[in-house]
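Hi U.,

Before I forget, here's the chain from the pilot set. I'm dumping it here mostly so it's searchable later in email.
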Amino acid sequence: MPSTSLTTKERRAAPSALTTPRGIGRVIRLALTALLVIWFALPFLPLVLWAFADGWSFPSPLPTAWGVRGIEDALGFGLLPGFARSVLLGLVVAAIATPLGALAARALTFGTVPFPRTVSALLLAPIALPPFAAVLGVNVLLLRAYIPPLIGVVLVLVVLALPYTTFVMRTAYGAYDLSYEDEARLLGASRTQVLRRVHLPMISPALARAAFLAFLVAWSDYIVTVIVGGGEVVTLPLIVASAAAGLGNDAAVAVMSLSAVIPPVLLLVAVLALRGSGRSTARRRRPSSALSRSDAAITPDSRRTTSGASA
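Structure:
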């Protein structure tokens, strides 16, 4: 009797065959992707030209003199120290705000926190409040508490990043199935093993997206760093703003603006790559797990019965 079940190779090929666009759909998708890339990359073309322009006079469409004076001026403004401080600040804020947002999202999703609506409103309050007025009020409290400016900047930025990390992780936990953790505990796994082998692998793409948003909050911040930092925390946005306020610094501003784009773009590519690898890993594991469950469901008695029937 011919078997109607799909082989492992057919199971792997079935989702991709159904979801991969063909013909005119593939052409439209590629065209839209190209238009989006051009749309987002076009504003950076003048910055690239200005970065290597030692002279650019009207009405010439291109620089009249090329050189690297803009890079030298940007380094003189403190590009490298400001870049390093911004990266470190973004990483610290992401490292604190991401797990806090994940814990808050898990508690709110699975109903383990009292008054969930009130807690949700408090977590989203930093987005609703005017940032300048809120930071001025918080700065007074930080000064009276004798909190150092660097720690104060980190604390305020973590609070500002929590709404984004909580929202991303709450969406992820909305599709999270707790039965996987229950099955792992029934099989004898400890809490640490469940966290390391079950929980974190399933939510790792969402954690990457939440960390990316938290990094962006700290990386692009200007108001908190100026007011709370009090001039002691000089990050890249502050250096760019001070250079842009002067005259004749167009090339240096262009170089620093381009350098400010590099880390977010690299992190975005990493997040998208992690998301793609997570999907491919899930597709590869799905057939094998299904086969192992079906094999485990066949008891020795059923095997004897099947062999006797075939005989």
